[in-house]
Protein: Ycf51 family protein
Organism: Anabaena sphaerica FACHB-251
Amino acid sequence: MPSTADFLQYTQWSGIATILFAVLTILAFILKWGFRFRLVGTTGFMLVLTAGLFSLSLVPLSRTVIPGAVKYTLVYDNGSNLAVIATSPKITPTELEATLRQAASNLYSYGRLGSRGNNQLTIRARTIIHPEPGISAPVYLGEVKRTLATREDTQMAVKLYLDKFAQLPQPTA
């Protein structure tokens, strides 16, 4: 994953290209070239691209890594206070707890707003099982609730539904 220093380098190169396009556009207007208006659009696009790269050089792009967490997929996010992640049916309770903590950290954003006075982000973890051929059933394995007020939440409430783990397919030896 590119770092903020990498994005700053990309911004510099994009800025140089933007200046070159601007000079070429001015030259095209002076010489009345037929494609001068296309160069205006290209220069405008380069300005937007440079501004975007510059903003990425200011904000660190980092993901939290919790030891023991497994890969998950975000399957639902209302952008406010509820998200659902999907995990493998082979997950263990300790892996699920670490995965929920990692998802709670990674899905936190300053732009999320709690609805109706609820300032909590709830992330539910589910998996899909197949009790019979051709039938799929979602099984919710746990959830985590964290505050939306601060980035670091030491009071995260992780709840595992241990009774649901009995429904998961058992590994064959």
